[in-house]
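User: I'm writing a tutorial on reading structure tokens. Could you give me a worked example: one chain, its sequence, then its tokens, then a sentence or two explaining what the tokens reveal?
Assistant: Sure. Here is the example chain.
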Amino acid sequence: MNPREYALIVAGGKGTRINSSLPKQFIELNGIPMLLHTLQAFYRYSSALSIVLVLAEDDFETWNSIVVRHQFTKPVILQKGGETRFQSVRNGLAKIDGDGLVAIHDGVRPLVSKDIIAASFHLAALHKTAVAAIRLKESIRMTNQAALSDDSLAHKKDITKAMDRSLFRLIQTPQTFDVQLIKKAYQMKEDLSLTDDASVAERSGHTISLFQGSYDNIKITTPEDLIIAEALLRARSSWVK
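And here are its predicted structure tokens:
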């Protein structure tokens, strides 16, 4: 019997780094709000998927207006987010009853593919954890001035060391887990150094299984990311035609 599958979409950002008064998850890409692109990607994987959408309570009205304007009829379970991502994920997990697998995904990664989602559930069914990751393309160096701003680095001598990039991975979402494993992990006291779900699961003593993500699966964080995402969406549309 296949385990029940859930998706927990975390979309509580405010768009500060993208210089937008509108929360970035609601910014349109090729005429459709970014968040709808994300949700549709998961429903393309499976129409039977149960989706929990975590939003700031102040954004519920905006979401409801988007649903009406774009005639979005897929079932979504709304949940109020917290002050931090950790709190928002924990709130979202509270909406899931019983056993199964849950893919936790950033609402502002609208280009995730059906194949990536499928791979995450398949691996999590085997190992209870499955985290999308990609290899680094460029050389990296470690610096002792990580706390300084970019401007400060130009005026203060720092010590750097070349690192072997083959030993590192850039971590993406979805990050997919056995439901009970990740719910128990999120019962711990919040620690701001834990920046993603894999870190929370690892702190709880679980081994993290990585699988190959995609360079297309970008997180929309800065203005140039919007340009890249729109170009990738247009390219995908041309491939389909």
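What the tokens reveal: The chain has one domain: 5-135+170-240. The chain has a mean pLDDT of 92.
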